[in-house]
User: Fold this.
Amino acid sequence: MADYDLTKTHIKHLDEPKHEIALSTEKLNVYYGEKHAMHDASLQFERYRITALIGASGSGKSTYLRSLNRMNDNIANTRVTGKIMYRGLNINSDEVDVYKMREHIGMVFQRPNPFAKSIYDNITFALKQHGQKDKKYLDEVVETTLKQAALWDQVKDSLGKSALALSGGQQQRLCIARAIAMKPDILLLDEPASALDPISTNTVEETLIRLKEEFTIVIVTHNMQQAARISDYTAFFHSGHALEFDETRKMFTRPKIKAAEDYVSGHFG
Assistant:
């Protein structure tokens, strides 16, 4: 693999964003024991936009994404330094209630992970855990979120059936519906279509494009075409460094960093 100068970066800070900044990091570092996995990542995410995080396997993009709602807290011997700013609060702080914070910053993982419950109960589980008992309200949330996830027409007559009986693409869209049932501000997705067939992938992409009208979305993807199709901004990661961040159309036509140019053109490595 080519040796790239990791001291050169092109991070376009959104000093005059079209929308407010929903989430940002300042000099974010992640350590797995002695391994320094993420170096001084400072990025901003504009509200109601989709930002794609791209880079080769092991580049740090998933490590970074998982830091945004502190999923790395669950990994032994992990230390995260720097700031993660949300609504004027550094959520990378011991004083923050992590579980409460995750109500505002939801996450969907690479492989569909529906609960071994009914479709209805998958969506209402967290709401019930938070004390919501109003059947009418729960019914409305189920219908609304399934419509938002483009799944309602397919499952409206089988809400009592096991979610595990759904196809892979349907399960992933159910997981998206489950994540937005808590009405988060921000939705994080870690390669949500990597295990899906092309038709299901296209449906998930169309779903995310619609969802950005209501949510700020940050997505890790290894699929360059997917990043180009659905994202407004793109961040390129390499060897644990966020090297370039810009509007997607500029990243894919006029990247500023050699490593980013090689990666998006397919000449990486």
The mean pLDDT is 92. The radius of gyration is 19 Å. The chain has ten helices and twelve strands.
